[in-house]
Design a protein that fits this description.
alpha+beta, Cytidine Deaminase, domain 2, three-stranded antiparallel β-sheet, 4 helices, globular
Length: 207
């Protein structure tokens, strides 16, 4: 998301309306590491009580990996409209960003991560980064999404190819990709509904 509507939990205000949030805060340019003494308990609008934990990526490095999650699982995702409502603030973002929604075995939200920030016309997505947070949260499955700053919600060939790559990666790590949702000012589009061939051969379990 853009900085005004991002999922950032330490540096950027949260602007979610429901569900859960997780954010990777990479402080590579910081000259002084952020001091955090144990988990921090907070409340965010629509999230209830959450717990934030930050750890160093490696000893001696200033890079922190911060993860915030609700104390209790969020709503059960049963259709793309719920994803659209969960990521509604993304429709107003001024750049294209990529999101990962982690789900438990009952398809309840256990984390929402702003996985990558891009430009006005695109965002670079790496499968290893997409599944990193999901694995840390012991996710059973994920739903991925990205916004279109242009306002349209038309899928592209690149969207389908990326979905296929992520579905294959999910098969390898045992975390199915249930859907890929495009969020825009014109509404949302579910690739699982309009381009099911992008999920061919996957073990995606849809409800």
């Amino acid at each position: 998301m853009g900085r005004g509507v991002g999922f950032a939990l330490l540096a950027v205000p949260v602007a979610l309306t429901a569900g859960a949030a997780a954010y990777f805060d990479y402080r590579r340019r910081s000259k002084r590491p952020v001091a955090l003494a144990g988990p921090a308990k907070r409340r965010y609008r629509g999230l209830g009580q959450t717990v934030t934990e930050c750890k160093r990526v490696a000893p001696g490095q200033r890079v922190l990996l911060c993860l915030t999650r609700p104390k209790k699982p969020g709503p059960m995702i049963t259709d793309p409209d719920q994803v659209c409502r969960l990521l509604a603030p993304a429709a107003a973002a001024d750049r294209e960003n990529f999101y990962v929604i982690s789900l438990d075995a009952r398809n309840r939200v256990i984390g929402v991560e702003e996985n990558a920030r891009g430009t006005l016309t695109g965002v670079e997505v790496h499968p290893r980064e997409v599944f990193k947070g999901a694995m840390m949260m012991n996710a059973n499955s994920i739903i991925v999404a990205h916004n279109h700053p242009s306002g349209d919600n038309v899928i592209s060939r690149e969207d389908i190819e990326l979905t296929r790559r992520l579905v294959k990666a999910g098969q390898l790590v045992g975390i199915p990709v249930h859907d890929h949702v495009i969020v825009s000012a014109d509404g949302c589009t579910s690739l699982a509904e309009v381009a099911p061939h992008a999920f061919d051969g996957s073990s995606v379990r849809r409800r």
